[in-house]
Amino acid sequence: MHAAHPLRIFWFSGLVTFLIAIAVAWFGGIGALWLFIVLAILEVTFSFDNAVINSRILARMSDLWVKLFLTVGIFIAVFVVRFALPILVVQFATGLSFGDVVNLALNDPERYGDELHHAAPIIEAFGGTFLLMLGVSYFLDHDKVVHWLSPIERQLARAGKIRFIKLLFMVAVMAFIYFTIEPGLKETVLLSGSLGIILQFGLHSLSVFFERSMNKGKVVAKQVGWAAFASFLYLEVLDASFSFDGVIGAFAITTSVLLIVAGLGVGAFWVRSLTIYLLRAGTLAKYRYLEHGAHWAILALGLVMLAKLYHLELPEVVTGSLGLIFISTAVVTSILEKRRQIDDEALIK
């Protein structure tokens, strides 16, 4: 069976889903099973564009680090990002101990959900600035030569020639938020937003620095060592930025923390499998504008998260559909562009 065959890639996610679904139905009944399915679909929908970006980054990493992403990375994604990290955020926001928050999550999930919603500005400022910085960095690249939405992307690429333009833009964004946000959130949002910017810029810069240092004077196709480790950390922070919003939104569906972890965790398995499928199938090479669509989706999601700081909230179905709309449009236009090129070559011949 070919390495890119869907059955070879998705079988494990399917097995995990089946086993957990049986356990959920056994202990919670059909109602819990339905919520489990909805949560898993919610996670995949929110993180589809994440899979596209993941596959691009993984393509530069060695096979060892790809395996670590699938093993250690999935543990971090399920148990750290979707369970422990929200608890740490609530702990930071409330001043309670970690054990008290865990007890709250397991024994009083409604209050835990309320506390998580109260801590949402921390999550939204961090995730929003991290994703916005990621999207901006992609389009403000003066070396970028392929453009999808040409009138906009060409101008952004030209602006990328200005030194430190990405950081200057994000500083301006943070200044705007700081002076327009409600007074009680100013310091919290400034700290969280600045952390998102620093992590995105720092991890990406470290990855590039280590890669150039280790490959100096020789040609190495894949990242290894510290360069790969920096990229690995970058992928995990990226996953957290996407997933935080899903964790908060999940409490609108159910207050059962264990059910949320089960549903979103299974969704994380499918996103990992989708990432590997895109990587092995060479999907980014096949669809010229797919990466562009994913980054526009990331920009949109980042702006949606920051808009929530002003209590401007779109329905979950709309937010979750943004990535699919951008990516599906990018795929369609990629196919049309490829056909146009084939027709042009046929006319020349």
Describe this structure in words.
The chain has 13 helices and no strands. The two termini are 38 Å apart. The longest helix is centred in the N-terminal third of the chain and has 53 residues, at 6-58. The chain is globular, with a radius of gyration of 21 Å. The model has no long low-confidence stretch (mean pLDDT 82). Helix 12 (290-307) packs antiparallel against helix 13 (316-348). The protein has 349 residues and is mainly alpha-helical. The protein has helices spanning 6-58, 63-94, 98-107, 109-118, 120-139, 150-159, 165-180, 186-214, 225-250, 257-280, 283-286, 290-307, 316-348. It has one domain (6-305, 316-348).
Which labels suit this protein?
single chain, 349 residues, mainly alpha, 13 helices, 0% strand, globular
Helix count from the secondary structure assignment: 13
The rough form would be described as globular
Order of helices and strands: HHHHHHHHHHHHH
Determine the mean pLDDT. 82
Helix fraction by DSSP (H/I, runs of at least 4): over 70%
- Unreliable runs: none
Quick one: how many beta strands? 0
Structural class estimated from helices and strands: mainly alpha
- Could you tell me the strand content as a percent range? under 5%
The count of domains is 1
What is the terminal-to-terminal distance? Answer: 38 Å
* Major β-sheet profile: none
Tell me the quaternary state: single chain
> Rg, please?
21 Å
